[in-house]
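Run log, item B.
One chain of 105 residues. Sequence copied directly from the ordering sheet:
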Amino acid sequence: MTEPIVVTAIFVPAPGQFEAVHAALLPAIAAVHEEAGCLLYAIHRAPDDSIVMIEKWDSADLLDAHGAGAAVAALNASLEGKLARPVDVTRLEPLPAGTDLQGTL
C-alpha cells in the first residue's frame, strides 16, 4: 500500500490578472475532482494575492497521472500570459504529530 501524498502549488498572478487566474482555475478544479486518486484539490488566496493550491492524492503514481493529464494541460494553456512566474509545485513529506485526525492532511 502506498502513502497519500500532499502537494502545494503556488500561482502568482501577473499584475491585474488575479481574477483571470482564479477564473482559469475553476474548471480545472471541477475536472480534477473527478480524477482517480484525488482526495483534496482546493485553492486559497494568500495575503500577497498569490493563489495557493493544496492537493492530496492517494498515491504518487496517481499524482503523476494527474500531472500528465488533460486537466493540467488545459489549465496550463488557460494560464498562459497570466502568471508573473512559473507555478511553484512542492511535494511534501508528512511529519505526523498529535492525533491521527488533526496531525496529518
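Observations after the first pass:
- Residues 37 and 61 are 9 Å apart (CA to CA).
- Residues 5-92 form a domain with the Alpha-Beta Plaits fold (CATH 3.30.70.100).
Flagged for discussion on Thursday.
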